[in-house]
């Protein structure tokens, strides 16, 4: 399991402070876009708490009911976070935007909004930088998008996308607030809220796609399967690997099943020894493989 979750804690602290400030400023200045931003930060706060809860649950040791452990709890709660971003974050912001486009209200005490935006941009930006640094430590030489697609640790890219959406949303609100103030177009406040909602919906769909894949039992990459196949077939007792089945139980735990055709005329002791060698070899090369099941393939009668 990923050990360093500084990005989650930094995002949690930032979101709590920012949510309170945005709601206060939004109510005081009657700004729908600021209230939408407050909803965004409140949802983000809830998301960080759910991710921390998922991390705690996923570390529970195996028991009789869950012999392979509770690692998939992390994937479940990550998917719930995506739903919250879509429903509460995106949906409520879009609703607020539509209401204020149909019934625009002029802003009052706009200086408060500018002050809150500056405060929020600083803390959200700081949180985003921390999340980006944490993510860069794990992605190595992979491109940014490739690292997200291949990542098996949802909190790493969930927090990154949340903070990125927060910063982008603040930029949108600031630009349209300036235009609202300069050209006396209160409808732009609703437009800003609507755009923030659409940003959140877009981000939630990307995150849900990745989290769903892991929750539904995503396996190891084809490249890794090829390496394992070559490694196993080097064993003196193996003819070929007929099939490889796998699933990520958690970011650091893989369940691997091999259907192996052993050479003819081997007795039980030879096959047992080969299985032990294969297990040791795989675990030495691939430290994420926690459980290995090797099924000898039945000999053909033809």
How do the strands and helices of this protein lay out in sequence?
Elements: H1 6-29, H2 32-58, H3 73-102, H4 110-139, H5 144-150, H6 154-183, H7 187-215, H8 222-233, E1 238-250, E2 253-262, H9 268-285, E3 289-296
Parallel strand pairs: 2-3
Antiparallel strand pairs: 1-2
Features:
2 domains, 9 helices, 69% helix, Alpha-Beta Plaits, Alpha-lytic protease prodomain-like, 302 residues, elongated
Number of helices: 9
What order do the strands of the largest sheet run in, or round the barrel if closed?
1-2-3
- The secondary structure category is mainly alpha
CATH fold name of the largest domain: Alpha-lytic protease prodomain-like
CATH architecture of the largest domain: Up-down Bundle
Q: Based on Cα principal axes, name the global outline.
A: elongated
Protein name: Cation transporter
GO molecular function: monoatomic cation transmembrane transporter activity
Keywords: Membrane, Transmembrane, Transmembrane helix, Transport
Subcellular location: Membrane
Structure notes:
This protein has 302 residues and is mainly alpha-helical. The protein folds into two domains: 6-215, Cation efflux protein transmembrane domain (Alpha-lytic protease prodomain-like); 222-296, Alpha-Beta Plaits. It is 69% helix and 10% strand. It is built from nine helices and three strands; from the N terminus they run ααααααααββαβ. It has a three-stranded mixed sheet with strand order 1-2-3. Strand 2 (253-262), helix 9 and strand 3 form a beta-alpha-beta unit. Helix 2 (32-58) runs antiparallel to helix 3 (73-102) and helix 2 packs parallel to helix 7. The longest helix has 30 residues, at 73-102. It is elongated. The model has no long low-confidence stretch (mean pLDDT 89). InterPro entries: Cation_efflux, Cation_efflux_CTD_sf, Cation_efflux_TM, Cation_efflux_TMD_sf, SLC30A9. This is Cation transporter. It is found in: Membrane.
């Amino acid at each position: 399991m990923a050990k360093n979750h500084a990005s989650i804690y930094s995002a949690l602290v930032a979101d709590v402070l920012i949510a309170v400030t945005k709601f206060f400023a939004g109510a005081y200045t009657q700004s729908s876009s600021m209230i939408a931003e407050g909803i965004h930060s409140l949802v983000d706060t809830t998301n960080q708490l759910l991710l921390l809860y998922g991390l705690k649950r996923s570390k529970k040791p195996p028991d009789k009911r869950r012999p392979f452990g509770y690692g998939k709890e992390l994937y479940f709660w990550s998917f719930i976070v995506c739903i919250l971003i879509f429903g509460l974050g995106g949906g409520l912001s879009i609703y607020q935007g539509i209401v204020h486009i149909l019934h625009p209200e002029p802003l009052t005490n706009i200086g408060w909004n500018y002050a809150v935006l500056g405060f929020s941009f600083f803390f959200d930006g700081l949180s985003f930088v921390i999340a980006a640094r944490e993510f860069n430590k794990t992605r190595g030489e992979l491109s940014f998008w490739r690292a997200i697609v291949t990542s098996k640790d949802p909190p790493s890219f969930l927090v990154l996308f949340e903070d990125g959406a927060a910063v982008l949303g603040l930029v949108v609100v600031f630009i349209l607030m300036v235009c609202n103030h300069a050209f006396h177009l209160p409808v732009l406040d609703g437009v800003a809220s609507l755009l923030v909602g659409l940003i959140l919906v877009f981000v939630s769909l990307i995150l849900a796609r990745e989290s769903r894949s892991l929750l539904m039992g995503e396996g190891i990459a084809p490249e890794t399967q090829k390496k394992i196949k070559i490694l196993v077939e080097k064993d003196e007792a193996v003819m070929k690997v007929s099939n490889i089945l796998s699933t990520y139980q958690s970011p650091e735990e893989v369940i691997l099943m091999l259907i192996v055709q052993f050479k003819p005329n081997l007795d039980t002791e030879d096959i047992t020894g080969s299985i032990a060698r294969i297990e040791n070899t795989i675990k030495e090369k691939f430290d994420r493989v926690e459980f290995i099941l090797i099924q000898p393939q039945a000999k053909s009668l033809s």
